[in-house]
Amino acid sequence: MDNLKAELLRGLWYVACPGSDIKPGAMTGKKLMGEMVLLGRDKHGKVFALRDICPHRGIPLRHGWFDGEHVQCCYHGWKFGTDGTCVDIPSTHEYQTIDYSKITCGAYPCIEQQGLVWVYFAENGEKPEDGRQPQPPMLPDFAVDQGPSVEIMQHFVCSVDHAALGLMDPTHAAFVHTSWWFKKNGTKLRPKEKQFEAAELGWAMVRHKIPPQNIAYRYLLGDNVTTEISYRLPGLRIEHIKGDKHSVVGLTTITPVTEDETEVRQMFWSTMGWVKPLKPLVRHLMNVFLDQDRRVVVQQREGLEYNPKLMLINDADTQGRWWMQLKREWANSSAEKRPFENPVKGRVLRWMS
């Protein structure tokens, strides 16, 4: 955590992009986990992910063409199926014998679920079902084919560790997230006390009632509004707010581009149909809020360049410690070929914010 770069965990599902970013018959290349990845959607509507490098001369396949069934390299016309297997080499002479099935550009397991495209990055070439995270998490209250009501993405010039610590930091809002419409008088801090417990691949703030002063939640969601916030590897924050009438799920994802660059996405799903007309306004406010986090990690980087020894305090930074403990346990359990054991122990945390 003291460094500019972070160790990237494998054997996990990462959010690559919203499904709406990939149109039928289209493909797009991007860097994820320090690797070149080609994302596409075939003529039947199914998403796929390939290694975005032609095995012939190394040119990215994204510069070529896709007919809804095959990806063709722009350099020599080699064709690959959506599983990565070569199906044609135009320069092959009729007297040459080449087993195309033995040539591949490489493919990644890829799933579209709840409007998001997830890509699995294996530890040792295993299939997801043979690994430690067989499938991406399902968000509560929403169907597998129901996408987010609103989503945004911003590029953070920082490691996934520093993006994650900002995500779970409960005390920075009064100083970073200040706007005319939110925490204008940011210096007014109040005592907070929350119960936490271990959860799947992470931990959760135990479900509790929304404070009575937050009347907006009652107006929108009905009575008896409760919330639960969970954090899990490889970098997911899930907040589930539920009332008698409606529910909202907020998801923030951090996907490493490289060891020191990260894509941060914020999205939410809602059972309230009237949210759609307000989408432009909501997206603007979300971008303002997330950009405040982005700017502060850019400023933080100026100091991290000098490799200072960082100091975490209890209880405000305990979740940051849990994050690093989880990462170490994931890596160590893999190296030692043993089951993952969640190191988080449930406890009450107290802070001012």
Automatic annotation (TrEMBL):
<keyword id="KW-0479">Metal-binding</keyword>
<dbReference type="InterPro" id="IPR050584">
    <property type="entry name" value="Cholesterol_7-desaturase"/>
</dbReference>
<keyword id="KW-0411">Iron-sulfur</keyword>
<dbReference type="Pfam" id="PF19112">
    <property type="entry name" value="VanA_C"/>
</dbReference>
<keyword id="KW-0001">2Fe-2S</keyword>
<dbReference type="InterPro" id="IPR017941">
    <property type="entry name" value="Rieske_2Fe-2S"/>
</dbReference>
<keyword id="KW-0560">Oxidoreductase</keyword>
<dbReference type="GO" id="GO:0051537">
    <property type="term" value="F:2 iron, 2 sulfur cluster binding"/>
</dbReference>
<dbReference type="GO" id="GO:0046872">
    <property type="term" value="F:metal ion binding"/>
</dbReference>
<feature type="domain" description="Rieske">
    <location>
        <begin position="14"/>
        <end position="119"/>
    </location>
</feature>
<dbReference type="InterPro" id="IPR036922">
    <property type="entry name" value="Rieske_2Fe-2S_sf"/>
</dbReference>
<protein>
    <submittedName>
        <fullName>Phenylpropionate dioxygenase, large terminal subunit</fullName>
    </submittedName>
</protein>
<dbReference type="InterPro" id="IPR044043">
    <property type="entry name" value="VanA_C_cat"/>
</dbReference>
<dbReference type="Pfam" id="PF00355">
    <property type="entry name" value="Rieske"/>
</dbReference>
<keyword id="KW-0408">Iron</keyword>
<keyword id="KW-0223">Dioxygenase</keyword>
<dbReference type="GO" id="GO:0051213">
    <property type="term" value="F:dioxygenase activity"/>
</dbReference>
